[in-house]
Automatic annotation (TrEMBL):
<dbReference type="GO" id="GO:0015074">
    <property type="term" value="P:DNA integration"/>
</dbReference>
<keyword id="KW-0238">DNA-binding</keyword>
<keyword id="KW-0233">DNA recombination</keyword>
<dbReference type="InterPro" id="IPR006118">
    <property type="entry name" value="Recombinase_CS"/>
</dbReference>
<dbReference type="InterPro" id="IPR036162">
    <property type="entry name" value="Resolvase-like_N_sf"/>
</dbReference>
<keyword id="KW-0229">DNA integration</keyword>
<feature type="active site" description="O-(5'-phospho-DNA)-serine intermediate">
    <location>
        <position position="13"/>
    </location>
</feature>
<comment type="similarity">
    <text>Belongs to the site-specific recombinase resolvase family.</text>
</comment>
<dbReference type="GO" id="GO:0000150">
    <property type="term" value="F:DNA strand exchange activity"/>
</dbReference>
<feature type="domain" description="Resolvase/invertase-type recombinase catalytic">
    <location>
        <begin position="5"/>
        <end position="139"/>
    </location>
</feature>
<dbReference type="GO" id="GO:0003677">
    <property type="term" value="F:DNA binding"/>
</dbReference>
<protein>
    <submittedName>
        <fullName>Transposon Tn501 resolvase</fullName>
    </submittedName>
</protein>
<dbReference type="InterPro" id="IPR006119">
    <property type="entry name" value="Resolv_N"/>
</dbReference>
<dbReference type="Pfam" id="PF00239">
    <property type="entry name" value="Resolvase"/>
</dbReference>
<dbReference type="InterPro" id="IPR050639">
    <property type="entry name" value="SSR_resolvase"/>
</dbReference>
Amino acid sequence: MSKHQTVAYIRVSSVQQNTDRQLVGIERDKEFIEKVSAKDTKRPQLKALLEHVRDGDIVVVHSMDRLARNTKDLLEIVEGLKIKGVSVRFIKENLSFTAGADNSMSNLMLTMLGAIAQFERELMLERQREGIESAKQKGLYKGRKASIDRASIMADINNGLSVRKTATKHGIAVSSVSRIIKALKVDYPSST
């Protein structure tokens, strides 16, 4: 019989962000660290965690918004874990969901806090869009700078590097290289 584990799920929105803050004070046997946005539930480390945990385990998450960005996903993930016999604990919100226990008050709090977090995120995005639109009207917003060096890509293509190898070299999709070639009307075979 294997011992029950305490498993931490840590998520930051980008590779540059630090995970240390979410690990403080969490005693754990294993951790799953995700460095991607939580816009949907298709996250490799979350998937690995969901496959890893067993009946009797405890999943610890710093806060609800680290596990899901909307109430529906949050409720589905927590309920799925509870059905597997896995308890869930959120540090920031000081909420625990024990497998096998029907705690109506905790479920209500999860739903309400999840909805509030989703609402706050949507408000923040709305304010961001309004700010960008205002800056555009004043001529102050030009968008972000292109992260693709078209000249370097075209130099590679002109030097005989294939579309696929050029894409790999620059860390972009084959379709992006193809679009650049098409936009610059370069005659190049479409095979990669």
